[in-house]
Amino acid sequence: MTTSTQIEKLMEDIHTLKQTLKFLQLNPKYDDGSNARELARKEKELEKLLAGGTQND
User: Fold this and answer.
1) How does pLDDT run across 17-48, given as a tens digit for each residue?
2) Alpha-carbon torsion (51, 8, 3, 43), positive or negative
3) Are residues 38 and 20 in contact, defined by beta-carbon separation less than 8 angstroms?
4) pTM of this prediction?
5) Residue 57 pLDDT greater than 50, yes or no
6) Would you list the DSSP string of 2-57?
């Protein structure tokens, strides 16, 4: 998988997780915190890819 493909997929995942978190704000009984943790992990991963991508591209 190329770096640009990984970045694109991460951005899609982050968007989906943000939408999920908006839903969970309206329905907090379904929120176990895992989506927020996953969002933070994916944002960090995206940051690393973008930082590495600018050096290698």
Assistant:
1) 999 999 999 999 999 999 999 999 999 999 99
2) positive
3) no
4) 0.81
5) no
6) -HHHHHHHHHHHHHHHHHHHHHHHH-GGG--SHHHHHHHHHHHHHHHHHHHHHHH-
